């Protein structure tokens, strides 16, 4: 009897989660928001002359689906990514850049979360435009 109750409970949780996903879509419960990575990706272009740079590991992973075919998709972090926890796969990853000036692209689309208000300092690029999509902000930098 216990075995059947366990199966019924698992099935009920699976169905409940699926129904919740059907109505809510992709939802981050710990931040109480629906991510807008898809909308933010519409403001960017990623090719040999343009790079998309996420402001950190979380934004990089959250938006990866929309840039997985892009060879010029990076994340910005001064220190090494942690070798433990959820960001461990990014430790030692070649997509990490420590400074926007390290890139050679003509245009950089800097993907940041609205809660991150720190401005990027760069000597090689100038900020020419910005776009907003939900919690995301896309800063456009052009090479000087």
Automatic annotation (TrEMBL):
Domain of life from the UniProt record: Bacteria
Protein name: Uncharacterized protein
Protein's organism: Bifidobacterium hominis
